Amino acid sequence: MNLKFEYRRYHLPFRVPIRTARGQWLVREGFILRLESEDGLVGWGEIAPITDFGSESLEAAQSACVSLGTFVSVEALEGIDPNLVCLRSGFRAAVQEIYRLKAVAKSEINTAKLTQIPESLSVAALLPAAVPALGIAPFKVEQGFRTFKWKVGVLNPLDEIAILDDLLAVLPTGSRLRLDANGAWDQRTLERWLKVCADRPIEFIEQPLEKNYRGMQDILLNIQNDYPTAIALDESLCHAHDVSFWSNLGWKGVYVIKPSLFADPYHVVDQLSHLNARVVFSSALETAVGARTALHLAFRWAGEPLALGFGVWPLFEDALFDGPIAYPFLMRKDVERINPEALWTALN
Predict the structure, then answer these.
(1) What is the pLDDT of residue 170?
(2) Catalytic pick from 151, 195, 252, 333?
(3) Is 113 in the active site?
């Protein structure tokens, strides 16, 4: 199948800078790509690299797009450098959409499977780092959220631990709190936090150690059996082989996956399904185009439905590029209403 290929670059300031253990993030950059088949069917994808996760750079992605030219074949796309994970992810999404549209046109869609897809999924509310979380949390509670994600690893651990109980005090009974360290801690800090969390309603601690931290795999594998609080992998998961690597080691914790950062997110989801893994589908702070692909996968996940990590919107200064606003439940009909053509036109 030969396809017409176009792409447009975006540079989108965040409404509020994203503060993590790595500092402030002011602007999201990436590409929207468009593929059109010879019979006029259009598929959309997004290239949204995050080099800290091990993806390619924007420059590498753009260079590859230029080299592909105006017309590409599916076979040529399969031959793209496997290290260009976000580029491959965007193309995979667009090609899958064209195949799906062809199946719809031929009435080959499995309607029985469609009836098994839930109408809504719960969402975790994203709380800012440090003390500002105390001001935002009551508002999120009032909206109806009961799962929350708090960015840690920004302040001194003792200061953040002191804030933790104040934060838990404003959350309703039965709420769950996730702690996201973005790889900011060392082993000693992780153990201190695990002791603190042991008798508190912490759902899991996300990526406590940097993925290149010396002995990280052994530390996490051993420590997960010593404390009741689960640990989740996030930045450690970027390539398909990462899932195989951790599962072969005997990982029992949570897998946080950002589909936009996998070369073939469909294959990764199949891997995790066969493992009966606990999975959180999470945003890579991409636009609505990439989020649309990720959420399609989330709604079709057959495993335990953990709250989505898509409590990020409103995210951009230009709200056109946001996905569905993050209320406590994300509706499938709102995902289906995402219109990639509108974003594409706005970038012209």
Answers:
(1) 96
(2) 151
(3) no
